[in-house]
Amino acid sequence: MSTHPADGPDGAHLRPPGVSDTLVQALGALSEALETTERARGHLYAFHQLTGGADFALDRAVALLREAGHDGWADRVQREILGRNVIPGHWTFQIVEAYNAAYYAPFKEMEAQARRELVAGRDHLYEAELKEQRRTRGHPGHTARPTTARDSAFRDETTGENDV
Questions:
Q1: What is the pLDDT averaged over residues 71-89?
Q2: 31, 154 in Cβ contact below 8 A?
Q3: 132-154 pLDDT, tens digit each
Q4: Per DSSP, what are the bridge partners of residue 87?
Q5: pTM here?
């Protein structure tokens, strides 16, 4: 087992004095909820891009319907579907903008403000403590921190430990 000072989380991932387990868990849950919202937002952007791609694909469908001699159908698709609102009054970019302004931005700011005020801005405290509980100390695949260039220069290749 290493006694190197880096054999534990860095200062940015250490719980400030007086912070309870419950608060670390609460902020972890808040961050997890934000991460889920980030994923939902990604799906919203996928929806936006896929819908836009489908709308542009309609140009080809309209052209091919005309080429096939079905001008009536080409006109109908162009008039009724091409460029249509996905919900009344909204194209997908407007849905994305409304989501960002009404939900995502306030949520992201609330999570950051809670971390700033309650744990000196530290991020991922719950995960950092979970990592410490689950990793095998001294195992080169279970290091506490990312390896820096300086650490690599002093690594003992036989043990995987740092000589500094």
A1: 98
A2: no
A3: 999 999 898 888 888 775 555 54
A4: 90
A5: 0.77
